Amino acid sequence: MRLITLALAALLLLIQYPLWLGKGGWLRVADFEGQVDVAHKKNAELIARNAKLDSEVRDLKDGTGAVEERARYELSMIKQNEIFIQIVGKGQAEPTVPAAVAAAPVDIAQ
């Protein structure tokens, strides 16, 4: 009787092996589910980034406001007949004046 019990216990363990460690086992499925979750999070981030870039491209194509804003802040450009004033606080070094401002004549009569 003891031999039959040991044989049945061994068979039970052999049946459990593919369930836990086999090709379609629970551990492997849990690992794949984790990989899928990571991929979904990355896709969501990329979708948000693409939406932001798409709106920026549409803004640059359709309106001149975005182009003007970029020219002002990134390239320090000003419009024609516009006066550039910059206030420097105490302890700050004298800022460099953009070439477009230094070369442009200032008309104060307006």
TrEMBL record:
Residues 22-110 are periplasmic. It is a single-pass type II membrane protein. InterPro entries: Cell_div_FtsB, FtsL/DivIC. It comes from the Bacteria. Residues 1-3 are cytoplasmic. Its main location: membrane. Keywords: Cell cycle, Cell division, Cell inner membrane, Cell membrane, Membrane, Transmembrane, Transmembrane helix. GO terms for cellular component: cell division site; cell septum; plasma membrane. One of its GO terms (biological process) is FtsZ-dependent cytokinesis. It is found in: Cell inner membrane. Part of a complex composed of FtsB, FtsL and FtsQ. Belongs to the FtsB family. HAMAP family: FtsB (MF_00599). Essential cell division protein. May link together the upstream cell division proteins, which are predominantly cytoplasmic, with the downstream cell division proteins, which are predominantly periplasmic. This is Cell division protein FtsB. It comes from Rugamonas rubra. The gene is ftsB.
